[in-house]
Amino acid sequence: MKQATRLFKSLADETRLRILALLLAEEKLCVCDLMAALELPQSTVSRHLAQLKNAGWVDDRREGVWVYYSLVATDSPLRRELQAILAQHLATEPVASADRQRLNGFGQGNRCA
C-alpha cells in the first residue's frame, strides 16, 4: 500500500506530470532538455525528478558528463497500468503538446551542447 500511495502522490503535481509526458514521448532526456521544454530552472526540474525517482517512476544513467533520465521498466502491474493511462491522456493535453513542440524545436542530439 505504501508504494501505491507514493505513486499517486507523485502524480499530484503538474510539473511532474509534464516531465512524465515528455519521458513517455522520448526514450531519455537530460535535465537541460527538460529545462528547455518546460521553461523552468534547473533546481525546479531536478527537485521534481528526484521526487519521481523516489516514487519509482524514473531512473537516471550517466553518459559522460550528462545524466539522462528515463522511465523505469517495471514489473509492477499498477505502475504499468498507470503509465498506459498517462500515455493515453497526457498525449492530448495542450500543455504537454506545447512542451513536446519546444523540446523538438531544439533539435535532437544537440540540445545540451
What is the secondary structure topology, with strand pairs?
Layout: H1 2-10, H2 14-25, E1 29-30, H3 31-38, H4 42-54, E2 58-63, E3 66-71, H5 77-90, H6 94-105
Antiparallel strand pairs: 1-3, 2-3
Question: What does this protein structure show overall?
Answer:
Helix content is 60%, strand content 12%. The chain is α+β, with helices and mostly antiparallel strands and 113 residues long. The chain has a 3-stranded antiparallel sheet. The radius of gyration is 13 Å and the shape is globular. The relative contact order is 0.20.
Q: Judging by the overall fold, what is the CATH architecture?
A: Orthogonal Bundle
For the record, what is the CATH homologous superfamily label? Winged helix-like DNA-binding domain superfamily/Winged helix DNA-binding domain
Strand order of the largest sheet: 1-3-2
Could you say how many structural domains there are in total?
1
Radius of gyration: 13 Å
What summary fits the major beta sheet? Answer: 3 strands, antiparallel
Q: Looking at the structure, what is the overall shape?
A: globular
Helix fraction by DSSP (H/I, runs of at least 4): 55-70%
CATH class: Mainly Alpha
